Amino acid sequence: MGDISAVLAALNAILWHEYVLYAIVGTGVLFTIWSGFSQYWALRHGPAVVRGEYDDPNDPGAINHFQALAAALSATVGLGNIGGVALAIALGGPGAVFWMWVVGFLGMAIKLTEVTLSMLYRNTEDPDNPHGGPMWVAARALGRRDWPRLGRTIGIIFCVSMLVSTATGGNMFQAWNVGEITQAYYGVPSWASGIVLAIIVGSVIIGGIKRIGKFAATIVPLMVAAYLLAGIWVLAANVSAIPAMFVLIVESAFSPAAAAGAFVGGSVFFAFQIGMKRAIFSNEAGQGSSPMVHAAAKTDEPVREGVVAGLEPFIDTIVVCTFTAIIVLSTGIWNRAPDIAFDEPPVFAASADGWTLPNTHTPGVDWIDGDSTFVVVSAHASEQTANNMHKLAGTAVATAAGFEIVWSPFVSDQMPEIIGDGYYRNYVGATLTAKAFDSVTPGLGKWVIVIATWLFAISTMISWSYYGEQGVVFMGGEKPVLAYKLVYCGLIILATLGFVKTDADLDNVIGIGTGIILFANIPICWMFGYQAMRAYKDYISRLKSGKIGPDHPPPHLDDLLSGRDIERD
Predict the structure, then answer these.
(1) Is the pTM of this model over 0.90?
(2) Are residues 513 and 411 in the same domain?
(3) How many CB atoms are closer than 10 A to CB 562?
(4) CB neighbour list of residue 6: distance below 8 Å, 6 or more residues apart
(5) Which of these, 346, 436, 543, 549, has the minimum number of CB atoms within 10 Å of its CB?
(6) Closest CA to 288 of 470, 140, 149, 129
(7) How many domains in the chain?
């Protein structure tokens, strides 16, 4: 496992070099300024479009604006909001949340640009089953410039990177979290959860985009509402601490976060890096994924769907991610005291693999075989934590005499020293958020977060399966689609077999998928973004002058949710 962790970390160091982050932020700043702060029109005009005031059954497409937004949100509002935010705080501290806000705001402009581009170049040869996305932008735009092979090549590169991101962040990250939290609370083996997930997801994705759109339009509003209601209960119990948490977020964004309890500290750059990664993973701005589902919307105005897409980062990052962050921070679960007190602190010994601790017997602790834990140690200086604090991971293993913790070797040029007076259970991702709920009402996380985790994961995996499918169709047509769907469901089970155990490894796995796709999509936005900006300014000019407007009263809510408002008579 150590070798795999090292490889994952090395790949992430390349994909998430500081200059890559600067390029993404720069892209968001560019399109924000170029569009004259399109975030304003996304928030002002987007809700009317989503409400159905501009829906027309005669326009090309398969689903209405609301269903397109719901399907895209079902991919973005998921475990990135429950588990990803907790992961960001656990690794980077409160300051990571500030940088998530920055990416959420800038991401609104990036999302509008990439979706508008995809709408301009989408394939509507079959009006009821359109295809779109960055691969079609590259292929068709460069094809018009007599560079069809180059366009096709760039499109394939994007599709391959999309499939990597689909397999990791869109699929395996979701399944891993479900298996982890279900095992932690109910003792159900992770692989069993994986099998159930695979069956549920498979039964939906076989039906194609119309079934996905209807499923998303039904489940997304319900799951978000339920999560927010439960979260309000938790925040009400800690309402006096909320203002201080916002202050802490801003202060930690510009100064190193101090170590305390389970949190080992975080440098300013690491908070920036983690916040950026988690926000991009959560709202998908710049990844080129959601343009593929927006391309299925019924409309003859490309910018109109781009404006709708601009709402996604706001809802996902500014609203839902912030909600989770304040819950985790205000309950203090992120920097909690040790979960299990030492009877006697273990002592390090030198070995060929590094500094090692003897296996530790922990009688009376309700472990599950494979549970992860850690101790905080002081050793060499760490750029990540801006101090000399580190986490040393261990795994609970069942023996004839009970459970014992098997510790990983610790590599350092100086003998580490254990800090604190106990062990910490390694609550990773969604499990940490669930524990925040439990800290207010014992058992609340067991029900609310576990159920929300299942629903969020299922909806995300379903939408991401469609994204991957569009890449397969672009490269090989419709024939390989069934095989792709079977492989996709198989990966769900694979993710729950226990090869990822720590928050750092989990962050590396999803970071690789996200990083690869950004390398493929951002250059496409740079090459053709001027076309999206030209179309956007023309659309807003016509909107301001009254040349375009709602063609009819908004449809009945039931018709909007079901898609009947766009069915032809």
Answers:
(1) no
(2) no
(3) 17
(4) none
(5) 549
(6) 470
(7) 2
Considering the domain boundaries, does residue 368 fall inside one?
Answer: yes
According to the model, what pLDDT value does residue 129 have? 76
Q: Enumerate residues 6+ apart whose C-beta is below 8 A from 344.
A: none
Q: Compute CA distances 110 → 25, 180, 276, 396, 483, whole Å.
A: 10, 33, 14, 44, 33
Report d(CA 304, CA 568) in Å as an integer.
21
Backbone angles phi, psi at 426, to 5 degrees: -90, 85
User: Are residues 467 and 532 part of one domain?
Assistant: yes
Q: Please report, for the chain, how many H helices and E strands are present, in that order.
A: 24, 8
Backbone phi, psi, residue 393, to 5°: -85, 150
Domain identity same for 199 and 230: yes
Contact (Cβ atoms closer than 8 angstroms) between residue 277 and residue 16: yes
Does the residue 502 lie in any domain?
Answer: no
Q: Is the same domain home to 163 and 264?
A: yes
Nearest Cα neighbor of 342 from 377, 375, 368 is 375
Task: State whether residue 238 is helix, strand or coil.
Answer: coil
Per-residue pLDDT, 553:
66
Residues 540 and 413 in one domain: no
Among 426, 443, 469, the domain-final residue is: 426
Q: Does residue 569 lie within any of the structural domains? A: no
Structure tokens at 193: 């959860």
For residue 101, give the CATH number of its domain. Answer: 1.20.1740
**Residue in 209, 282, 168 with CA at minimum distance from that of residue 473:** 209
Same domain, 478 and 408: no
- Distance between CA atoms of 488 and 492, rounded to whole angstroms? 7
Distance of CA 383 to the CA centre of its chain: 25
User: 562 in helix, strand or coil?
Assistant: helix
Candidates 57, 42, 48, 210; CA nearest to 116 is 42
Question: Residue 112: what pLDDT?
Answer: 95
Please give the residue range of the domain that contains residue 368: 347-426
HSE-CB at 41 with a 13 A cutoff on CA atoms is 20
- Residue 184 within any structural domain of the chain: yes
At CA 87, angle to CA 277 and CA 219, rounded to 5?
85
Give the integer Cα–Cα distance in Å for 437 and 420: 25
* 24 in the same domain as 86: yes
Residues 235 and 295 in one domain: yes
236 burial via Cβ count (<10 Å: 0-12, 13-18, 19+): exposed
Calculate ∠ Cα 496-497-500, nearest 5°.
Answer: 80
pLDDT along the chain (569 residues), means of 10: 68 76 88 96 92 82 83 75 84 92 94 93 81 89 88 88 83 85 85 93 78 71 81 92 94 89 88 84 81 87 92 91 93 91 85 88 81 90 88 88 88 90 85 88 83 84 87 89 92 82 62 75 89 93 83 63 62
| DSSP H or E stretch at residue 521 | helix 503-545
Interatomic CA distance for residues 554 and 50, integer angstroms: 10
